[in-house]
Amino acid sequence: MIEIFRRTFCWIIAGCFIFGCFFTNPKNIYADSKVNGNFDKNEIKRSLESLRDIDYQTWQIIVYPSNKVSNNLTLRILGYPGSLRIDHPVDLTVNSGRKTWLLKDITKTNKANVEFLNDSAAEFDLTPLVAGLDKNRPLRLSLPGLINDLPIPPYLVSEWRTLAG
Of the candidates 148, 76, 150, which has an alpha carbon nearest to the alpha carbon of residue 113? Predict the structure, then answer.
């Protein structure tokens, strides 16, 4: 009797597995989408990646166009809420070999984002950095007192340059 139950159970599990493999539409399953909609139902291309700094703290890096008409890009850095507090304004230092950029904090300049963003988020104008890059080089980000060294891989720099147009 136990052997019959085991065989029946195995056939049921196998049937469920086969059903799941053949009748699930993989096009509807995404880990990350590169195109989002905003409040006006317009599509916005953006880059989203989670990275760890040298202290093993995870940061979410989002790059998106400032608005539809310009090629200006905004870099948003998010930490885990409650684990840190970013006192604005704080400038972001970006290094690539011998080159260094200082990106201005624009978090408080947009009135809509001030209410939306919490204390663990900061936004920076990425346009001077992307304009100054001629190759997809690895970058290193640092925020005083928060991020000691956050490596940005070349594939992500390539995405940012593609978004800039």
Answer: 76
Look-up: residue for tokens 């291309």?
45
pTM of this structure? 0.68
Q: Domain residues of the chain, as ranges?
A: 36-164
Eight-state DSSP code of residue 26: G
pLDDT in tens, 5-24: 888 888 888 777 776 666 65
pLDDT tens-place string over residues 81-136: 666 667 767 889 999 988 999 998 888 776 555 555 667 788 889 989 988 888 88
| Site of tokens 């049937």 | 15
Cα–Cα distance, 118 to 107 (Å, whole number): 10
DSSP 8-class letter at 27: G
Give the Cα separation of 118 and 113 in Å (integer): 9
